[in-house]
Structure formats: C-alpha cells, structure tokens
Amino acid sequence: MRTGVVVHLSPTDRKRLRSIVDDRNSLQKHVWRARIVLATADGVGTVEIMRTAGVSKTAVWRWQARFMDEGVEGLLRDKTRPPDTPRLPLDVAERVVALTLCDPPGERTHWTGRLMAKVAGVGLTSVQRIWKAHGLAPHRIRAFKLSNDPKFAAKVRDIVGLYVDPPAHAVVLSIDEKSQIQALDRTQPGLPMKKGRAGTMTHDYKRHGTTTLFAAFNILEGNVIGRCMQRHRHQEFIRFLNAVEREVPAGKTVHAILDNYATHKHPKVIDWLGRHPRWTFHFTPTSASWLNAVEGFFAILTRRRLKRGVFKGIVDLQAAINCFVVDHNQRSKPFVWTADPDKIIAAAARGHQVLESIR
Q: What is the pLDDT of residue 3?
C-alpha cells in the first residue's frame, strides 16, 4: 500500500461494501471496487490487492482515492469523459439525410455506408449513427402490390366477415393450390448441426419433377384437407372439390374463399358450383391473395418441411407433404383474424394516393 494511504471504514460503510460483494446481482465492476476498499482497510498491500481483484496498480490507487473523496457512492458511479472527437455539426447530419433521400451518383441503385462517407466527407460510423438516429436503411427495400379491384372494400369486408363472424351451420374453407413444388435432391449429403457449427447443405441439386398441393383450410377448426396432384388445371380442381364435398358433413353450407386464378372461374367449375347449391364462392380482390388464410399454411409448409427437405422423387415428396398435413391436423387450432378491415381499406387508399402523386 502506498505510504500515507489509510482507509477507515465505519461499521455502516463496511456492512454496505460487504453486501455489494455478497450480492449475486451486483455488477462485477462494483464488486471488485468494493473489494479494493475492504482489503485496503484491512491493511492488505497493493500487490496483493492487484492479485485478488485482478486489476492494475493504477486502478487500485484510483478507487482508493475515489472512496476517500466520495465514499461508497463514489464507487458506484462512473465519471464521464468528454469524447475524443468533437460532435458533428448539425448541418452535416442534415446534409447526410438529404443525400440519402436522393439517388446516389453513378450507376447505383442505393447508397452504401462507405459511399455516403466518401461523398459527405465523414466517417463510416458517423454515417451509420446518423442513419440509425433518423430511421434510414438504404440497403433495405419492402415489396408491395396494391389491388386495383374496384370492389376491393366490399370484398375485404365480405371475407374478413367470414373470418370474424362465420355464418351459423356453415363451414368456411380457405382454398388454394401451391403449384410447382419441386422434388429436389441434393448432389451431396449435408452435415448435421453441432456446437459451434451450423448444418450444411449443398447449393446445387437434382430435380425429380414437381407436384401441386390443393388445400382447403378450415377456419373454425384449423385443420387442412390436402390432395397432391400432378397438374393444376380445372379438371384437378374439380376432383379436389369433390374430395372436399365428401368430407364436409351433410347439412352444412360451405363458404369457400378463393383467389382469382383462372382455374377457379372456369366454366366447368361454375357448372359444378351450380350442381352443388350448398357451396358459395367468395373471391379475394385482385392482387390480394394474402387475404386468403390458407397462404399462411403454405408458408409454414415451405419453411418447416420443403425448404430443407431432400426428396428422391415425386412419391417421396408427396408422402412428406401428406405426413406434414396429418401432423398439422393433430395440432390444429382455430384461425383467428386480428386485422381491422377499415384499416386495411384506408391503407390501400393512402397507397393509391401516393402512387397518383408520383405519376
């Protein structure tokens, strides 16, 4: 211990420092500061304090002095220091934001951090900090598609009404097909995941054909009626409708939600609909297939079974899809729609206003 450095602890201070050391939720920096002061008060030398606390000599001296000047509170507070570099002027940040909202120079589609730093004459971290503060992300883009259906509002309210308040003694089915599902086999086997390494899969593959999954998603129960077929013409669609018709209990009316794919409106499909009066078709607005609830099931199927799947042929692929449907139905839950149709319609109207202003 340095000559002349003497720390006298009152019973209150000693008790408080000991509670900091013993508390498992204390910050470690507070713990080793308290240990420095306790060891100093017990007459332990500087070298021994350095060894037990795991800090440098200057750190020991600094916190001894801080305690003698400010007490226990001084150990729990970090002193701030002025930054090494001055803050950027406000006009620099405004210029970076203005440039970001304009097109970049040359044959480029968007700004990068390094390009902006070069043009604006500031550091890369400064550009990133400005972009974060103003919510700018030039490297990101969101896809969108606005429906031009003149009956958009009426169709949205009709379909959302079926989701939220289905008719009594009726079955509401969301029907669609997922076409061109490829049976992909990898050229080499991948390695399994292990600690410190992700699983592997070759980027190239062998194609063994395609299949189409026709699916009817029951809104009230959450289960799926699925059939795999080689093609997705109106003939296959009618075969699927007959399969669904056989599985829907007698005495129930059927409200089917479909998109505007030509197969769904084929004359022979319309004739089939006329022969089955308990069925009613509800078509989503054009360019709004996201309103069809079965799309969520297709997304889950793709992520959890198809994307990483390895299939030796069409039969293998169809068997995997059928097993997934069975597994899904064993854990099915009713579909719950939460979006307000009025907000959907208002958002679409705002989108059209923006597009018109751009034109």
A: 55
For residue 117, the enclosing domain spans 90-133
Residue 283, both tokens: 């078509």
Compute the distance between CA of residue 33 and CA of residue 168 in angstroms, rounded to an integer. Answer: 71
Q: Return the amino acid letter for 329.
A: N
CATH of the domain at 289: 3.30.420.10
Q: Phi and psi dihedrals of 187, rounded to 5?
A: -70, -25
How many CB atoms neighbour CB 313 within 10 A? 12
> Taking 90 as the threshold, does the pLDDT of residue 86 lie above it?
no
Residue reference for tokens 């210029």: 95
Q: pLDDT tier at 4 (50, 70, 90 boundaries)?
A: low
Calpha distance 232→228 (Å, rounded)? 10
Same domain membership, residue 312 and residue 204: yes
Contact (CB, 8 A) for 237 and 269: yes
Asked if residues 210 and 182 have their Cβ atoms less than 8 Å apart, the reply is yes
Average pLDDT, the chain: 90
CA nearest to 63, candidates 32, 23, 17: 32
- How many Cβ atoms sit within 10 Å of the Cβ of residue 99? 17
Query: Is 81 among the domain residues?
Result: no
Q: In 3D, which of 256, 248, 103, 113 has the Cα closest to residue 173?
A: 256
Report helix, strand or coil for 209. Answer: strand
pTM for the full predicted model: 0.71
Cα 185–chain centre separation: 28
| Calpha distance 168→251 (Å, rounded) | 11
Contact present, 109 and 79 (Cβ < 8 Å): no
Distance of CA 288 to the CA centre of its chain: 21
Distances (CA, A) of 195 to 304, 309, 324: 22, 22, 28
Q: Give start and end residues of each alpha helix (H) in the chain.
A: 11-22, 28-41, 46-53, 57-70, 72-75, 90-100, 113-120, 124-133, 152-164, 234-247, 267-275, 294-301, 314-330, 341-358
